[in-house]
Amino acid sequence: MQLSGEPVFFLGPTGRFLYVNPAWEELTGIPASAVLGRPDESAGQDQPHSESLDCFHPPVEAIDGVAVSTLGRIQRLGGPREWRRLEFWPHHDRDGRVLFILGLVRSMDEASLAPESPGARLRAELWKIREAFEQRLGTDALIGFGPAHRRLTVQIEAAAVAKVPVLIVGPPGSGKRQVAWTIHCRAGRSDAPFVVIDCAALPAEVLDRELFGPPGTRSEGPPRLKLEHGSLVLRDILELPRDLQARLGEALTHPDALQVRVLALTHGDPEAALQDDRLRSDLYFALSTLVIRLLPLQERLEEIPVLAQHFLDRANRRTGLRRLGFRPEAIETLVRYDWPGNLSELARVVDFAHQRADTETIGLEHLPPEIQGHLGSAYLPPAIAQEQFPLDAMLERLERRLIEQALRSARGNKSLAAKMLHISRTRLHRRVQELGLAGESEDEGSPPVSRNDSDRD
After folding, report:
1. What pTM did the predictor assign?
2. Which of 78, 147, 300, 433 lies deepest, with the highest CB count within 10 Å?
3. What is the pLDDT of residues 226-239, one digit of tens each?
């Protein structure tokens, strides 16, 4: 039977496909026989068409019996991706149990009759970010938004076209290797060698061989890199022995070195190492033509919900288990934590919760005990207990914390705090008044803090 000229599908109470009409088959390029009777746990990468079908899985609100809508990026089999609006309409028996869910696919310019699912909105926002980064950088290895992340994207694009070494500085777990890989891909070298050498873990003689080749194979004259093309990633560059620093600095001046993209990583302070004579000046100046500085996750609090969803989707693809998102109290707890391990720690926490959860959404009880009981930094106010946490309220609380942090860092100087937040002083003053923070001091006479753009990155 054909119920409509528009794409229509029926799902069971747990998301199993019961029926799809010909318009749905035409939209997706997937025959009905490939989805009917499909197992409920269908997010695994080994399942056929899993990427194309993922957006048709009902949000948790629909499974609970509430009509909702979402934005979905539909990947047509062998064709382009299309953004559509999806509606999920549960139908109940006399006792209120969900019998089946009617799904409708509408165009983006059609108004939805069902309210939007907050959790599904976060997933749609993540898809949009991924799509933008895939188009701009050729990979979605780096997920984020905001002024600092936009600046990072510009720096990556500059590094990809510049034939100079790049020094990437950031705290442990902040994504330095992902930045190096993104530069490698953006430069059109995804098929070229991507060689990573750990300067802290390898003995000096091994480092010498890995950098310059076995002694019997080296040509006479100035030292030359063993790698002839591609990208050479040097982890913990400050741990490289000084004699090898001298040889590397000399090798980077050789004309053939332009064929190799050298990406040096460190979580230390290169300038302090230079002053302490742990880093040779010739190598420092060879590496520091272009410096990319990464922020700790504690200074990217507004990005945590999207980053957590990104790591959750990655765990779904890796394990085949479907976890759709996070409940509000879990997101609130993640935002309150101070993340000394940065992105690496967030990824581990999400993997732990993904494995521990026995429902499609991650709750507070699924997070590691040390995350549940952590009080966060001193500037964070205690959480307000409440049964529900609307998205607007959560964003307002996050904005309050960011403003409080900026005012504290600026010692009450609102002009300086506004610069830290990348907003106008007028807007900051208005939000301070609206959020009830007017008691903060207006110390406009405080000496300004010198902080250039490269320091922020």
Report:
1. 0.65
2. 300
3. 888 889 999 999 99
